[in-house]
Each structure stands twice: as structure tokens, then as C-alpha cells.
From TrEMBL:
Keywords: Membrane, Transmembrane, Transmembrane helix. The keyword Transport does not apply. The keyword Transport does not apply. This is Methylamine utilization protein MauF. It comes from Methylopila jiangsuensis. Signal peptide: none annotated. The chain crosses the membrane at residues 38-57, 63-83, 104-131, 143-164, 185-202, 208-232.
Length: 284
């Protein structure tokens, strides 16, 4: 397994990359962090309640619910960059040699196939969940669907901010790193894209994935479920474009590592705000 990015000894606490051992939450070590996190939780909850109330006179409840879920899906995809697979993909799928038009051209097939893998993963996972939801009889943003999603958002937001410990079942594994010795980079790009695009074959450190999964199933429509996962996967894929810039891998990895704690804070805040917003919409 590839090593995680350097942590500067202060911002993250992750288990070694050996087997099924990926940690599911950032541990906040700073003394003042609990007070800060409590303030973030309260502010996020208040914002989540206030925003729908302000928008209610001019925007319908279904439209607001869709906006909340789509926004959370895209943000969740971006935040998944702070998972082990996000670090690994950024450092393994890079242009070879000196930065030049030729090296970027050689990198482009891997980049394109990586995106195609994400798109295929969204179609497979979203289609399956939407079809299953239609068979069960789910029909979109009902009151009870909004309540369920809202409560899940609040619980996992508190989990991500370190106030609760709740079950976080996922396959605690990374993309197959030995593939880089056996296949060309363009193939690895597609393989990684599909593995990550299916979202449950590897570990994703943001619980927003759970809300996206539940919302996709509750939609009861394959097209809507695919669209929701396409947005989530677009957020996962777009950070790979940083490899087109003349920046070193170590610079990117260090930038991510220095912001690991902040990313987890944003993750928790989004979950709390989104959960509070969905519960408010259920009451309107």
C-alpha cells in the first residue's frame, strides 16, 4: 500500500495502510478544538434551519431539497480527496518526466479514462439503487424521506466532528496499488476511476456518501439516482486536474495534509447544516 501524505505530526491520526485498517474519522488533537467544533456544530445547525425558512416564500420544498442534496453530493465528492484513495490517486496518476506539453499529452489518456471510470461507476451504482428504490415503492422527497435523511445528517455530522461514535460500515481498503507494476498508466486510470466511482469497493472518509446513497434509493428513479452519484463522482474526479499544473506531488500532498483537520470540520458542518435543512423542509 502507498503511504499517506505527510502529516507534519499534528493534524491527522490514521491507522497504517495495512489490510483492513483505514480509520474512519479525523481525531482532533488540539486543546481548543472541542470548543471550536461545538461552535461549528451550533452555527451549522442554525444556518441549516434558517436558509430554508428564508427561501421558502419563493422556492418550493422539492426544489430546495434537491439543491441541498446536490450541493452536499458535490461537496462530499471533493471532501473524499482527503481519503487514502484520494491521496493515492493524486500521487500515482501523474505525468511522467519533466513538466511539458509532451508529458501532459501522455497523461491525458489516463485522466480521461479515470473520468470515464467515475461516470460508469455512477451509472452502475446509481442505476441499481434507483431501480431497487422503485421496486420497493420509494417516491422521492416525501416528508418521511426528508426526516430520515435529516436525522442521518445530524448524527453523522456529530460523528465527523468527534462528538458521537456511530457505525460506519464500509470496505476499509484502497485501490490496488500493485496494479502500477502490472499495467500501463492509462489502464490504471480507468481501473481506479471505476473502483472509486462505485464508491463502496474502497474506503470513503466522508459520511456524506451515506446520505447520497440513501437519497438515490429514496428517489425511486434510476435517472435521478444516477445524476446524484454523477455529481458526487464529479467532485471526486475534478481534483485530479491539479496534475495538469506545474506543481510537485509532495507540494500537493503537503497541502492536503495541512488541511486534513479543516476538511473534517467542513465535512461535519455540511452534514449538520444539510441535516437541519432537510428536517426544516420536512416541517414546511
Amino acid at each position: 500500500m502507498a503511504a499517506m501524505a505527510p502529516t507534519d505530526g499534528e493534524t491527522i491520526s490514521l491507522a497504517p495502510m495495512t489490510g483492513e485498517s483505514v480509520a474512519d474519522c479525523v481525531i482532533f488533537p488540539k486543546e481548543q478544538s472541542r470548543t471550536v467544533r461545538a461552535a461549528v456544530l451550533a452555527a451549522a445547525g442554525a444556518l441549516g434551519v434558517a436558509a430554508p425558512l428564508v427561501a421558502a416564500p419563493s422556492v418550493s420544498v422539492p426544489a430546495m431539497a434537491s439543491a441541498v442534496l446536490v450541493g452536499m453530493a458535490f461537496a462530499g465528492g471533493l471532501l473524499s480527496t482527503w481519503s487514502p484513495c484520494g491521496y493515492s490517486s493524486l500521487c500515482l496518476l501523474r505525468p511522467h518526466g519533466r513538466y511539458s506539453a509532451r508529458s501532459l499529452a501522455g497523461f491525458t489518456p489516463a485522466f480521461a479514462l479515470h473520468g470515464l471510470g467515475y461516470a460508469l461507476g455512477a451509472a452502475i451504482l446509481g442505476g441499481a439503487l434507483g431501480f431497487a428504490g422503485s421496486l420497493i415503492g420509494f417516491s422521492g422527497a416525501t416528508v418521511w424521506a426528508l426526516v430520515g435523511l435529516g436525522v442521518a445528517g445530524l448524527i453523522y455530522g456529530a460523528h465527523q466532528l468527534g462528538f458521537l461514535r456511530v457505525p460506519y460500515p464500509q470496505r476499509r481498503a484502497q485501490v490496488p496499488h500493485d496494479a502500477r507494476q502490472r499495467f500501463p498508466m492509462w489502464f490504471i486510470g480507468g481501473l481506479y476511476g471505476l473502483s472509486l466511482g462505485l464508491n463502496y469497493l474502497t474506503y470513503v472518509q466522508t459520511p456524506i456518501l451515506y446520505l447520497v446513497t440513501a437519497a438515490a434509493a429514496l428517489s425511486g428513479e434510476a435517472t435521478l439516482a444516477i445524476a446524484l452519484f454523477a455529481v458526487f463522482n464529479a467532485g471526486r474526479f475534478l481534483p485530479m486536474a491539479v496534475n495538469y499544473l506545474p506543481v510537485s506531488d509532495i507540494a500537493v500532498q503537503n497541502w492536503l495534509a495541512r488541511r486534513q483537520e479543516s476538511a473534517a470540520m467542513v465535512d461535519g458542518a455540511l452534514l449538520v447544516a444539510g441535516g437541519a435543512a432537510l428536517l426544516t423542509l420536512a416541517a414546511l
